[in-house]
Amino acid sequence: MSKKYVYLFKEGNGKMRELLGGKGANLAEMTSLGLPVPQGFTVTTEACNKYYADKKSISSDILKEIFEALEKVEKESGKKFGDPKNPFLVSVRSGSRASMPGMMDTILNLGLNNETVVGLAKLTDNPRFAYDSYRRFIQMFADVVMDVNKENFEHLLEAMKKAKGVTGDTDLDGNDMKVLVEQFLVRYKELKGADFPQDPKVQLVEAISAVFRSWDNPRANTYRRLNHIPYEWGTAVNVQGMVFGNMGEDSGTGVAFTRNPATGEKVLYGEYLFNAQGEDVVAGIRTPKPIAELKADNKEVYAEFEKVCDILEKHYKDMQDMEFTIERGKLYMLQTRNGKRTAQAAVKIAIDLVNEGMLTEKEALLKVEPGQLDSLLHPQFDPKALKEAKPITVGLNASPGAATGRVTFTAERARDLKEKDGLPVILVRQETSPEDIEGMVVAAGILTARGGMTSHAAVVARGMGTCCVAGAGEVIVDEHAKHFTVNGKKYHEGDWISLDGSTGAVYGEKINTVEATVEGDFDTLMLWADKYAALSVRTNADNPRDAKVARQFGAKGIGLCRTEHMFFEADRIMAVREMIVSKTVEEREKALAKILPMQRDDFYQIYKEMKGYPVTVRYLDPPLHEFVPTEEKDIKALAKEMGLSFEELHATIIGLHETNPMLGHRGCRLSVTFPEIAVMQTRAVIEAAIMVKKEGIDITPEIMIPLVGEPRELQYVKDIVVATADQIIAESGIKLDYLVGTMIEIPRAAILADEIAKDAEFFSFGTNDLTQMTFGFSRDDAGKFLGDYYDKKIFAQDPFAHIDIKGVGALVEMAVERGKQTRKDIKLGICGEHGGDPYSIDFCHNVGLTYVSCSPFRVPIARLAAAHANINNPRK
């Protein structure tokens, strides 16, 4: 049997979403419910994929099905496509299986031409309506199908209104509309060099092709990438009989929600217009009326609409977003879908639907998208102010939230300005380094010209809950001149700018922000999430402040404590530098002895905040050159402070330089070369644990050795750790358990995981580096070319933002299986940035990890994503 590409609405149902798209499936479902739906048919998503496979052409077998379906719908309506006496008109709309509002195209009133418009005018005895519909169709067809900017027609409409001395479209009469149609047809021919197509079947085929093409337009591609919608899904096309809201004052059109999409309140919310078509409501040409006023305007229609809303919400068990038309007093439903809503509304609606007995707790959890929770946890722009602002450039949405402040270019200046008057600052850098931490802490937002989603700026900002836009390539930073340039315009230190970390937009002005709010319903949702999740959620935290925030957000431990971040504090950086420039073991141990009490106190404070939950401490990881200055003036100042000659210190710093430091002397390699570093860090970890244990907090420290690629590396460093830890524990007289494990971040480690597991009591997948090494991409520089990969369909999404299941995921799965072969009870976690990404968390659940670890402000997102993963695919 040959494949079917076209389905009548009455042939489909709501379960056929993958084939009919969301809109087509819902139209079919509403038809089966007996609701007033103008009939039509759906051209499937498979037809869209075939269109692209056939080099953007609709095959003859699909065309045959389209016209056969059209004939059936014509017969049911009693009208004929292209009939001058009784014309059948249709709308052509997109409809992918995932809702993509506003991303693709729609065409109304298709089937009108120079003859059918005359017939429509006579049939309805309403020339104004007929010619108004035709002029709308010409403009829409030209814009959507023929790529002619609609402004070419808008100015003719405005000129007509001006000539007639009126302000509204509805003030123009039938003759005016007829003249406009003639002007539109002339303008179309001038622009396209051909007459406007008069054959309705040609119009239909061109319109369906245009909707298929819109699946690949830039805004649709961007939306899909941001929302993880695969390109391969394709879009369906819905061809539906027209009903008209512009037939007079007893006709109208509107959009409504069964609940308030901003607050979640259980009240009908929406707008409508009489004597209008759908585009008028959304275009803002006329001011719509609130839906509540329809009750006074037409009591019977409002009562029927309320009844339909109740039927749809109970049927779909969710808030519905509906489009409707009233034609001569009769209600028609054109669309329904689960409505988009704010995070605040999503949480409230989910809880309310459980309380109303409509949903189970599990079903309610699935109604809230994990990524939405970001906006509950971070400041956002005032919606009215944002509407009037235009971005000057767009970078990567590296850390969510909104920030407005004065431009600064150095960490010191950021601190000084903030201390001076308390007003917010935005730190603007070419790229950040660990030395910028002081400025990053006080900044309201961070903007970098370079770097990706896992760059230093992005990772640190997410950890602190600070808004960050990274990799804004159009931003040219001149730190010395104290300005940056975007498209020729300069922004100086002290100028106000604003950042949207959720979209990557940068604004060259001050935009007011509103603080985030978390209410009681949020806590209820999180309790449900933990109840149904299999994965535990930890946090990446390097200090007591972040640990406290993470605990408040429900983290069940720390999965990554990066000890090097502690080294950059002003009170210890000198001791670290002293350790680095030491020439002998004795000198190095002397410097490390200064660092030990600081590290020990850090761990003590963190353990206290975590109150017995596990803490995984990663030993020193970055190359040592990151801790020393590079500018001559800074080297001279440091040499003076350390009692060294400039030449001696400069030679040491030059000696630390590496061609590729990310693959150089870092991670476990530092402890192999300088075992005394591992000794000091072990003392700090274990002594702090003994201190809190004496205070009644039972802690089991987890010591993580980074960048292991060879089993003997881990054996060597573990021997040092165990010898040091066991001696301290024995001397203390306190019983203390601890674990030693490793990060799996080198592909070779994944391959040799069975051997490594002989010594490793846990694996934590460092997927930032694992992705970098698997692809051979620098995570700080990949942003320069990944845009081309998206445009050319090589990549669908950023592998640093969402785990690459085929490649990196295969290595993770291999390491999990091989590790368990050696050590059945091995703990398995992930501590890369993927640990806070819902798409990646789903993979982590399916592959059998024990926990995910993410930045503090992503903990609630991870908790909800973990629940989604287990509800959708329960662990056995």
| Helix content bin | 40-55%
Low-confidence residue ranges: none
Tally of helical runs: 36
The main pleated sheet reads as:
8 strands, mixed
Q: How many beta-strand runs? A: 31
Q: What is the overall pLDDT average?
A: 92
Name its key features.
876 residues, alpha/beta, 8-stranded mixed beta sheet, 31 strands
Model description:
This protein is α/β, with parallel strands linked by helices and 876 residues long. It is built from 36 helices and 31 strands. Helix 4 (116-124) runs antiparallel to helix 5 (127-144) and helix 20 crosses helix 36. The longest helix is centred in the C-terminal third of the chain and has 26 residues, at 585-610. The radius of gyration is 32 Å and the shape is elongated. The two termini are 39 Å apart. The mean pLDDT is 92.
Describe the SSE topology.
Elements: E1 6-8, H1 17-32, E2 40-43, H2 45-53, H3 60-77, E3 90-96, E4 106-110, H4 116-124, H5 127-144, H6 151-164, H7 174-192, H8 200-214, H9 218-227, E5 235-241, E6 252-257, E7 269-274, H10 278-283, E8 289-290, H11 294-297, H12 299-316, E9 320-327, E10 330-338, H13 343-355, H14 361-366, H15 374-377, E11 380-381, H16 383-388, E12 393-394, E13 396-399, E14 402-408, H17 411-421, E15 425-429, H18 437-442, E16 445-448, H19 456-464, E17 467-470, E18 475-478, E19 483-486, E20 489-492, E21 496-500, E22 505-507, E23 513-514, H20 520-532, E24 536-540, H21 544-552, E25 558-562, H22 563-566, H23 573-581, H24 585-610, E26 615-618, H25 632-642, H26 646-656, H27 668-673, H28 675-694, E27 701-705, H29 711-732, E28 739-744, H30 747-751, H31 753-756, E29 762-765, H32 767-775, H33 783-791, H34 808-822, E30 827-830, H35 838-847, E31 851-854, H36 859-872
Parallel strand pairs: 14-15, 15-16, 16-17, 24-25, 24-31, 25-26, 26-27, 27-28, 28-29, 29-30, 30-31
Antiparallel strand pairs: 1-2, 2-5, 3-4, 3-5, 6-7, 6-9, 7-8, 9-10, 11-23, 12-22, 13-17, 14-21, 18-19, 19-20, 21-22
Helix pairs in contact: 4-5, 5-7, 6-7, 13-20, 20-36, 21-24, 23-24, 24-28, 25-26, 28-29, 35-36
